[in-house]
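Quick one:
INPUT:
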């Protein structure tokens, strides 16, 4: 039908020429609908990212007292880092459509990124430079003198007064779905002025920051602006990318150089408003404007914070027209983008204002902001920040998620608690309306629970996120989909053990999918073995309610809690598992028993000990042991009785990520020869097994991925783990290094992110950091589904 219409319209060109534009748009939309596809205006899935790449030039790496030693050792290092970054991006090119990079100062590194990325990202800005020696000669002399003048001469081969500093360090890459557009106003167009250097495949505007402090004055930091046409949707994106004045958090007081950043924000405002000034008000309302980069605005340090004044105080340009997309979509996730300072410095600011009502509104929605885990262990001290944008839809970001409100019903004489989300106030609200659409649902309860969650079609994918980590989804307990028939409709669900609050994200299984679905959220009542609640070590207790006599929704006399023992220490030792049942008021009427218990180490089932309203047991259990705690009431009383069960374990899973030299041990000549000794349970392990690993980090961190440079990444223990970092030829009092213990995990603390809270070794004049992850149970399915 659609093809026939197209042929007919093509034969009627003279007739079409006389039609108004509005009717043409109507016909195009009609044809698209008849052909089963979305119109151009309905295809706007755009994914963007910003990254401080830490690709330092020699002046920023070696401007110290040992510059000669540094210069001899750095050749090839930055190039390796650039290749690592490019390969990580290219591992999955569907994740990012636009990538803004800052702190790319090394010339060879820039060429590597262009060479490796330009095939998939042919629209790029490779270099923006300004004649600093003419524009700020005194600031350059002051900055270099504050470091080491001899180093500057050695690096540049000329006296200070002739050194022209570094370029902006800014780069941008966009995929084939985009075209560069001319800037509406070219007042800031770069590349034709005296000394202005530009390597780009389209027009670029740039404003060189007039205010700077410290070594920042050595580079042409500024803000660049490009205008891109997103060809599938014909939407226009104005992208500003920048690297602002450094905060230097290690200095006192915090929020240093805030005045410089204040002036720089004023320049960005002028850059945007001047460049877009020829656009009409109607065009501006449809414009997508993004400001991305390392803005160096700390959130967690300083009172009052600079962030609050910039992004949380109404009546300013940056709060009335823009918003910090991370703060709006992930308010409970700290979003640490610089783990050295424990700060969020990297931002994606979006305009226009975010969705608030939850319905279909506005032109664009920032659906999700994340810190992709595969970029965390790159050599940079920053993390990449990514955002997923699309046309607005119901519940399109976590800040306006649908509030799930499960109700209790009686089915077959047993209570059930669930909600099927589909229609609301006469509208079908659950739709993947546009390619790449996301929909979010928010569950908040008084306690933890077990849930079966899933859509009415296998073409829709469900992911679960915790409020304090909106990047890594929670694995389902079983490794496969189950089918539930609800109201004569089949739901494809996964089962999860979850805390009191979590988010559900619905997406198409591929980026091109659109379609309707319904979502089932069912909380297990633990009433039967088939609907048992699942216990996870260290997690909050799971609860059930034993019914009073004549309950409205049927009678529940049993509460079933399933547990599975996962993992065994590398030493071969079994873990100690403790099981608890609580809330049993009368020992004669309420019993706690083990059912279907199998201990893989061959031990018999232990008995529960009674202590007041609590029943508990403790036993050594092998990997794969399984069973149920069953709480039973004999005779229902006059009131409902809430009961709980929970599980503890001694097993710990340790993942060693990277050992990082932040500063060489004293003196900084040559390099450090490092080996480590790991104490784990009753064993002592040397990594590497023999010899040492060379670290060189004069003025920039030297990063060694653990598995590539040392050996075994994943270890399991049940008693204790600690580590020493030893510098072979160091003579300081801290050699051999002091043992650093890995922290303990306790009830309610089931994992520790050792990237945010690393182990630190402070030598005399040196500092080393270990990134790791410590978990009670790894974030993956426990066993195949039932």
């Amino acid at each position: 039908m659609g093809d026939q219409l197209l042929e007919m319209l093509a034969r009627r060109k003279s007739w079409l020429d006389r039609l108004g534009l509005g009717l043409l748009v109507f016909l195009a939309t009609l044809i698209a609908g008849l052909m089963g596809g979305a119109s151009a205006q309905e295809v706007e899935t755009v994914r963007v990212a910003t990254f401080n790449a830490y690709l330092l030039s020699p002046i920023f790496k070696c401007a110290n007292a040992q510059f000669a030693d540094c210069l001899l050792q750095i050749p090839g290092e930055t190039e390796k880092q650039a290749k690592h970054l490019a390969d990580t991006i290219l591992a999955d090119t569907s994740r990012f459509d636009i990538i803004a990079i800052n702190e790319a100062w090394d010339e060879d590194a820039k060429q590597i990124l262009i060479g490796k990325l330009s095939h998939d990202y042919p629209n790029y800005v490779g270099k923006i430079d300004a004649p600093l020696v003419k524009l700020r000669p005194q600031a350059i002399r002051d900055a270099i003198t504050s470091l080491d003048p001899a180093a500057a001469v050695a690096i540049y081969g000329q006296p200070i007064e002739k050194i022209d500093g570094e370029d902006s360090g800014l780069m941008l890459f966009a995929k084939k779905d985009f075209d560069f557009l001319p800037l509406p106003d070219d007042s800031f167009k770069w590349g034709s002025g005296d000394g202005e250097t530009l390597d780009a495949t389209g027009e670029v505007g740039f404003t060189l920051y007039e205010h700077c402090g410290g070594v920042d004055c050595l580079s042409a930091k500024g803000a660049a602006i490009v205008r891109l046409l997103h060809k599938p949707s014909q939407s226009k994106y104005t992208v500003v990318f920048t690297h602002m004045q450094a905060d230097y958090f290690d200095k006192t007081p915090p929020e240093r150089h805030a005045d410089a950043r204040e002036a720089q924000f004023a320049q960005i405002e002028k850059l945007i408003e001047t460049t877009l000034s020829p656009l009409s008000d109607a065009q501006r309302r449809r414009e997508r404007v993004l400001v991305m980069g390392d803005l160096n605005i700390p959130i967690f340090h300083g009172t009052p914070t600079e962030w609050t004044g910039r992004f949380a105080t109404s009546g300013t340009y940056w709060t009335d027209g823009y918003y910090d997309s991370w703060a709006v979509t992930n308010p409970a996730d700290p979003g640490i983008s610089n783990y050295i300072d424990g700060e969020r410095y990297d931002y994606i600011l979006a305009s226009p204002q975010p969705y608030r009502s939850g319905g279909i509104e506005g032109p664009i929605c920032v659906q999700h902001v994340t810190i992709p885990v595969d970029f965390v262990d790159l050599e940079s001290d920053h993390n990449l920040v990514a955002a997923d944008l699309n046309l607005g839809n119901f519940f399109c970001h976590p800040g306006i998620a649908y509030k799930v409100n499960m109700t209790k019903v009686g089915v077959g004489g047993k209570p059930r608690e669930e909600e099927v989300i589909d229609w609301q106030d006469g509208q079908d609200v659950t739709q993947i309306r546009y390619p790449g659409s996301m929909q979010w649902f928010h569950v908040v309860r008084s306690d933890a629970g077990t849930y079966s969650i899933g859509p009415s079609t296998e073409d829709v994918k469900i992911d679960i996120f915790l409020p304090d980590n909106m990047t890594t989804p929670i694995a389902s307990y079983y490794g496969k989909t189950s089918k539930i028939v609800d109201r004569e409709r089949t739901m494809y669900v996964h089962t999860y053990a979850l805390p009191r609050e979590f988010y559900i994200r619905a997406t198409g299984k591929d980026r091109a999918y659109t379609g309707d679905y319904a979502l089932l959220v069912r909380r297990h009542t633990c009433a039967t073995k088939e609907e048992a609640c699942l216990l996870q070590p260290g997690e909050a207790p799971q609860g059930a309610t034993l019914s009073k006599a004549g309950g409205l929704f049927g009678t529940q006399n049993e509460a079933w809690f399933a547990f599975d023992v996962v993992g065994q220490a590398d030493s071969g030792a079994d873990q100690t598992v403790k099981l608890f049942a609580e809330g049993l008021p009368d020992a004669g009427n309420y019993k706690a028993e083990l059912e279907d218990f199998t201990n893989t180490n061959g031990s018999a089932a232990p008995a529960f000990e009674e202590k007041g309203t609590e029943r508990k047991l403790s036993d050594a259990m092998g990997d794969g042991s399984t069973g149920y705690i069953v709480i039973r009431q004999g005779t229902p009383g006059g009131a409902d009785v809430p009961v709980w069960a929970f599980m503890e374990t001694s097993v710990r899973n340790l993942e060693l990520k990277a050992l990082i030299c932040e500063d060489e041990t004293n003196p900084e000549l040559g390099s450090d020869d490092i080996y480590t000794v790991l104490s784990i349970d009753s064993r002592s392990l040397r990594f590497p097994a023999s010899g040492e690993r060379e670290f060189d980090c004069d003025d920039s961190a030297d990063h060694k991925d653990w598995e590539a440079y040392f050996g075994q990444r994943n270890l399991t223990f049940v008693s204790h783990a600690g580590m020493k970092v030893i510098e072979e030829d160091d003579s300081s009092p801290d050699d051999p290094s002091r043992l650093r213990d890995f922290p303990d995990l306790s009830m309610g603390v089931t994992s520790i992110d050792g990237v945010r809270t690393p182990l630190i070794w402070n030598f005399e004049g040196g500092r080393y950091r270990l990134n790791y992850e410590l978990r009670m149970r790894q974030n993956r399915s426990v066993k195949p589904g039932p």
